[in-house]
Amino acid sequence: MEFLKRFPNLIVIVLLILVLIAGIAMNLRMRHLRESEAYYRWLIAAAVSERLFQDQEEGDQDGVLFSGSVAAARESGIFFDYLDGDSDSEDISLLGRVAKDYQQDWRIWSFARSSYAAEQRQQFLLLAKERKLRFAQDIQYAEAQAGDVNIFNLFFGFRKVAANLVWLEVDRYWHQGNMYRMITLMRTCVALDPHFVEAYIIGSWHLAYNATASMPDTPWPRRDWDPRYQVCLGEKERFYYYAIDFLKDGIRRNPRNYRIYFDLGFALYKQKLEDYANAVKYLAEAIALPHDRWVPRQLFLCQELNGQYEEALQGWKDYMERYPGSMTAVEVAPRFILRNQGLIYEKRAEEFRIQAKQMTDATVSKKFRKQAEENYMLARGIWNELSDPFGEGRKMRMEALDMREEGRYLEALAVLDKARWDTAALWQEFSDLIIEIKKEAGISLSVSEKKAVMRDSEVGICPGMPKEEQERRLHTIEDIKAGL
User: Fold this and answer.
1) What is the mean pLDDT of residues 14-41?
2) pLDDT band at 151; cut points 50, 70, 90
3) Which string of b and e fits 422-446 if b means at least 16 CB within 10 Å?
4) Averaged confidence pLDDT in the chain
5) Is 231 helix (H, G, I), strand (E, B) or coil?
6) In a 10 Å sphere around its CB, with 0-12 CB exposed, 13-18 middle and 19+ buried, how is residue 480 labelled?
7) What's the CATH superfamily of 159-328?
8) Which of 77, 241, 256, 391 has a 20 to 30 A CA-CA distance from 184?
9) Contact, 254 vs 194, CB < 8 A?
């Protein structure tokens, strides 16, 4: 006490020093968390890109840094239960597999802020500051790169306001019909606010739907080979891929938002490109995240269109259990459950018929024919229970296939011709089957059928296509011509 009386200001000085030390420690802690969060967001984006897009470019700094991060993650002990059976058939890294389940994001966050990732975290900050990382080009990373108050950080706080103002200009250009000006501003808008999900979704809709509404499909000979996308594109089709790129960029910046995955899978791959395999791929990603209840229904429909009847069947059953009181579960799901059950039986029956034809042993062949007939009977029962145009069309198809087996080709063709007019949804499938049966029976194709065969055979050939690919397709065309 005597000491404090002699030095009354000492306690104040000590308190000030303690407060200063605590402030420095807090500042260092906050800086560490900012840097760790930026690195964590980049890890999620890079992991999703590796698993879904696999588009690493030569000299890609993201790929090099990500490989180093994966190696450090292996040594951290945070992912110990993911190291068992580490050989992955899809050639996906440890972090790529962990990022597949958003509920495991806490592991990636724990790694991102740990001492195990210190070297990679600092390397990330350096590369991001120099703008050498593809998945760290938006301005949110500047906050981690510079913790001090400066003019850039002052503007950073108003980025959402600026993005909204830019978006108003995008809307104005749309109403003026200035599509090409829109594209640049749309990219500026999401650069200002990379989490402006509506800008990604509406922007891709402008590109794929509104911009192409009055454009005719480009004839194949007038398309050009695009080495980046490995497809033949005309002016209209190129807008579809602009939209795809735009949404993929949105996924990299918002890998935990189901809406962007949904629009990529449904609005583009399903509706515009009829690429059902990719539609299933991205819709499956959408339902792996928190989502609205209507999202899985589109996945099940695309699985059916892609021939994944077992997956679609199980999906509809799970949906009924999850939402038992909904109108979809009561009225829609049972119908699609029957459809996929019937398609599964049909598929099995046709596989058994093919096997029966390939068998040289009469006893074994008879066994396969019996199994085929059993599955056809099960399918017929399903279509009778379904009792709608789709089911009636499937029954007529089965009847035509039975006639084909018996060599009654003209009758089979007559049944299929009637069936395709009665069931519009099956028109293309039945038209293709008619051509197949005519070829098998040696019956001349009609003029329209010949044109359809030639048109389908020429799809995919365009100027600029690599020579080896073009030659392969030309050989296919010559074989088709010879068959006509």
Assistant:
1) 79
2) very low
3) ebeebeebbbebbbebbeeeeeebe
4) 84
5) strand
6) middle
7) Tetratricopeptide repeat domain (1.25.40.10)
8) 256
9) yes
pLDDT band, very low/low/confident/very high, at 14 (cuts 50, 70, 90): low
Contact predicate 335/366, CB 8 Å: no
Q: Identify the pLDDT of residue 21.
A: 77
Residue located via tokens 């640049």: 184
C-alpha neighbours within 13 Å on the C-beta side of residue 340: 23
Give whichever of 17-31, 138-152, 196-210 has the largest mean pLDDT: 196-210
- CA dihedral in degrees (287, 290, 294, 297; nearest 10)? 20
Q: Give yes or no for a contact between 251 and 52, defined as CB atoms under 8 angstroms apart.
A: yes
Under the banding of pLDDT at 50, 70 and 90, the label for residue 286 is very high
What is the DSSP secondary-structure string of 415-483? HHHHHHHH-GGGHHHHHHHHHHHHHHHTPPPPHHHHHHHHHHHHTT--TT--HHHHHHHHHHHHHHHHH
Break the chain into its structural domains and give their ranges.
11-154, 159-328, 444-484
d(C-alpha 398, C-alpha 404), whole Å: 10
CA 278, CA 305: separation in Å to the nearest integer? 12
Measured on CA atoms in the order 237, 239, 242, 243, is the torsion positive or negative?
A: negative
Burial of 314 (0-12, 13-18, 19+ CB in 10 A): middle
d(CA 297, CA 310): 15
The number of residues making up the chain comes to: 484
| Alpha helices by DSSP H, 53-131 | 61-76, 94-98, 105-112, 118-129
Contacts of 303 (CB under 8 A, 6+ apart): 280, 309, 311, 312, 315
The whole-number average pLDDT for the span 266-274 is 94
C-beta neighbour count of 403 within 10 angstroms: 19
Report whether pLDDT(145) > 60: no
Segment 341-378, tens digit of pLDDT: 999 999 999 999 889 888 888 888 899 999 999 999 99
